[in-house]
Design goal:
The protein is built from 9 helices and 19 strands. With 365 residues, the chain is of the alpha+beta class. The strands form 8 sheets. The protein has a 4-stranded antiparallel β-sheet with strand order 14-15-13-16, with helices on one face. A 3-stranded antiparallel β-sheet has the order 17-18-19, sandwiched between helices.
Length: 365
């Protein structure tokens, strides 16, 4: 496989075309399990691996629904070819290189009429695109000639990486990228534009909220489920007591995560709880910038999480796991050690102690 780029025009607009040349005459059709193995063995950076896996997981789920098979049995045909793998991994690597932390996208023009694929003549949008587009705003594309405008690969990238379907949000625009499609259509510029906003002191991050109502799980299993979700990449996970129909007591499991973590965490919920469905909705997080510092407490060390806004410290809270570990080592009650740790944190919050970043617990934005 060889990748090259060149500058082209599309309907008079300048754009950059990335061309993937497959150096074999008949690339093999691959299953999702096979592609997952390729991604695992590729030595990708963790964030790139996570995003690329989420994209192909979305594709596998859509194709599985279309063909009535399990996700691991799906044969990707065109999508599984080397060029599509390069497209997906390339987009995810570009996001990582650019330091992009959140993605949103607008409505998608999917085209109209018919196209030809591995399964013959298909209506536009093709079945996989239609599955992937559920819950997203789409249109045929006004004034366009019949034909396919959105592919399964492109739709899966949007659904796996973008948490929100929205018109252009307010932003301080920093960079503009214009990528070209392979065809130069006379009726529209066949390009994709990417707008990157400069970071601000108080920034927003896209997030996804996964929820499930569960009334028949042994309550002794919940601590392990919550711990497992956090270890699997969730930003937070919690339970809310509810009353369901017929007065049955139950819980709502809520999981907050980055968009590229949603597919894996959704699968975890299905595998480790008794729910038959998971609700999914986009959210926006506004986090404080933060870092960890070490504070001396009773002759030991406790990590303190420090949150700051526009350079001013507004939160300082000791990590309870460190407090509990120190209490065990000293043979002291946890509440007594916590009281001392909170006093040390108050010194940092009040500017009466110099916060030195903890070397093992740095936090970067």
């Amino acid at each position: 496989m060889r990748i090259s780029t060149t500058e082209v025009t599309r309907a008079g607009l300048r754009a950059r075309l990335a061309r993937v040349d497959v150096l074999v005459t008949d690339p093999p059709h691959r299953t999702w399990a096979a592609i997952r193995g390729l991604l695992d063995d590729a030595g990708l950076l963790p964030a790139v691996h996570s995003r690329a896996s989420a994209v192909f997981a979305r594709l596998a789920e859509a194709e599985a629904r279309v063909h009535g098979v399990s996700a691991d049995e799906v044969h990707f045909h065109e999508v599984g070819a080397l060029d599509a793998i390069a497209d997906v991994v390339g987009v995810c690597a570009a996001l990582d290189d650019l330091g992009v932390t959140s993605v949103s996208a607008g409505p998608v023009a999917v085209g109209s009429g018919h196209t030809r694929g591995a399964h013959g003549r298909l209506p536009v949008p093709v079945p996989a695109v239609a599955e992937l587009a559920r819950g997203w705003r789409i249109s045929a594309g006004s004034g366009s000639q019949p034909g396919e405008l959105a592919t399964p690969t492109g739709m899966a990238l949007i659904r796996a990486l973008a948490a929100t379907c929205e018109d252009l949000p307010p932003m301080t625009l920093d960079l503009v990228g214009v990528g070209a499609g392979g065809r130069d259509r006379p009726d529209r510029a066949n390009v994709v534009r990417v707008l990157i906003a400069a970071p601000s002191a108080t920034h927003q991050e896209a997030a996804v909220l996964l929820e499930a109502n569960v009334d028949d799980l042994d309550p002794r299993l919940w601590p392990g489920v919550l711990t497992g979700l956090l270890e699997a990449g969730a930003a937070d996970a919690w339970l809310v007591p509810i009353i369901m129909k017929k007065g049955r007591p139950a819980h709502t499991l809520a999981v907050l995560c980055a968009p590229d973590q949603a597919a894996g965490l959704r699968r975890y919920i299905f595998e480790h709880t008794t729910t038959l469905g998971v609700r999914e909705s986009p959210r926006t997080k506004v986090p404080l910038s933060r870092y960890f510092v070490k504070a001396e407490v009773l002759g030991g060390e406790v990590a303190v999480k420090v949150g700051h806004l526009d350079g001013v410290i507004v939160q300082a809270m000791p990590e309870f796991e460190d407090v509990a570990a120190l209490a065990r080592r000293l043979g002291r009650p946890e509440h007594a050690v916590l009281r001392e740790a909170l006093a040390a944190a108050d010194l940092i919050l009040g500017g009466r102690a110099d916060p030195v970043p903890h070397p093992d617990r740095s936090f970067r934005h």
